[in-house]
Amino acid sequence: MIVFAFLLIALVVVVAGVTLAVAGGGSEAVLPEAEPDRLSDALPENRPVVRADIDELRLPVAPRGYRMSDVDDVLERLAAELAERDARIAELTAATGPAPAAGPADGSVDLTKAAEQ
Predict the structure, then answer these.
(1) Closest by alpha carbon to 36, among 70, 7, 78?
(2) Phi and psi for 15 in degrees, rounded to 5?
């Protein structure tokens, strides 16, 4: 009977200890809130983005994947730079005139056109 009482008291002490540990024990020593990950090495603001910038870019991970705001910012920046480059390419292409007509894709020579010249 004494052994049973001792085991019962030990069980109550263990359950109470685990409960206090899980619930925080009522002490004020609570861990501080974790700072969320932020984009540490953003794309450069003072120059165009280059391939190395994209290779070095690491987006912070959130509990359910990537932070949508950081991904949206990067995609907006890349879209703007691509649009600017496309406009510049179109401007330069228009300034140089139409591109010469390309020959056959397989590299063969059209003998009828060669004979006419």
Answers:
(1) 70
(2) -65, -40
For 65, which DSSP code?
E
SS (H, E, C) 2-69: HHHHHHHHHHHHHHHHHHHHHHCCCCCCCCCCCCCCCCCCCCCCCCCCCHHHHHHCCCCEECCEECHH
Q: How many CB atoms lie within 10 A of CB 43?
A: 18
Residue with tokens 């009828």: 112
Helix (H, G, I), strand (E, B) or coil at 103: coil
Tell me the whole-structure pTM to 2 decimals: 0.45
DSSP 52: H
| The two structure tokens encoding residue 48 | 């165009």
pLDDT of the residue at 113: 54
Q: Is the dihedral of CA 49, 51, 56, 59 positive or negative?
A: positive
Tell me, what's the pLDDT at 67? 80
Hey, where are the domains in the chain?
36-96
- Distance between CA atoms of residues 43 and 10, nearest Å: 60
Contact 70, 76 (CB under 8 A): no
